Amino acid sequence: MHEAASEPGRVGPPAGAAAGTPAGVRARKAALRASLLGARKRLPAGELSAAGRSIRDHVLALPEAQMAGTVAAYFSVGSEPDTHGLVYALWKRGTYVILPLLRPDGDLDWASYEGPESLRPGPHGLLEPSEPARGTGAIARASLVLAPALAVDMSGNRLGRGGGSFDRALARVGSQVPVIALLYDGELLDRVPAEPHDRPVRLAALPSRGIVPLQIPLHRSAILSTRTVRVLASRERSRDAGPAGGRLASD
After folding, report:
1. Residue 95 CB partners (closer than 8 Å, separation 6+)
2. Does the pLDDT value for residue 125 go beyond 70?
3. Can you tell me the distance from the alpha carbon of 154 to that of 213, in angstroms, rounded to the nearest whole number?
4. Longest dimension (CA), the chain
5. Which residues make Cβ contacts (< 8 Å) with residue 249, sequence separation at least 6?
């Protein structure tokens, strides 16, 4: 277990590892990861459930989710923001939902979700679809992607659990496809340490703020669809005009 940082998002490297070196970046990621996992374990069960319901409603209201023919998602485990209700709701309204199958080499294959009874136990405590595998390239045919994350920063850098499986999958996603990281409040940070192989996300979904667009550098990502930007900007203006509250201290 790595020592947790006192300030998430501001993690320094251990002695002997300069902050900008690959070893320093990896050390900062490991320390931040340990801190965030510890914070998630301390969240009350009621707060976990409420966060999952709020994220579900925010994603379902997104125009891209309403129009999506295929959504690549994941079935949450442990203290992750709950996606069970979201995956079911997408499937129930007619969206073709694919979920990952973890391969022995750490890459992700994909198979369709056909309701709760279509899931079976997988490696590392995961639940995976029992339908036939569609291949690692199936994610490239999704029009919306939901990605797990421990934290994201305002430049779209995503901190995962360190296995690299989702980064490999996201590398196959087209530049115009919205990728949404699902987070708890407090996990949208000023800065997340990133390496060249890390794939950015374009949006973050948080219980209190809803869908937040991220300012990904142009050399790393294409621009969000005009309709999404317009809808999200309108929601941000509405929140700013209303009573104060619900904003993240780290934003």
Report:
1. 65, 68, 69, 70, 71
2. yes
3. 8
4. 54
5. 186
Question: Position of tokens 């056909």?
Answer: 114
State which amino acid sits at residue 43: L
Closest CA to 212 of 156, 147, 173: 156
pLDDT tens per residue, range 66-121: 999 999 999 999 999 999 999 999 999 999 999 999 999 999 999 999 999 999 99
Superfamily designation of domain 45-239: NagB/RpiA/CoA transferase-like (3.40.50.10420)
- Residues 95 and 66: their CA atoms lie apart, in Å, by 9
Separation CA 157–CA 191 (nearest Å)? 8
How much is the pTM? 0.80
Domain boundaries of the chain, sorted by first residue: 1-42, 45-239
**DSSP letter (8 states) at residue 72:** E
Ranges of H-type helices in 1-104: 22-41, 45-61, 63-67, 84-92
Alpha helices in 154-225 (DSSP H): 165-170
| Count, residues in the chain | 251
Residue keyed to tokens 């409420």: 50
Choose among 209, 163, 200: nearest CA to 178: 200
Q: How far apart (Å, rounded) are the C-alpha atoms in residues 155 and 90?
A: 28
DSSP structure string for 224-246: PPHHHHHHHHHHHHHHHHS-S--
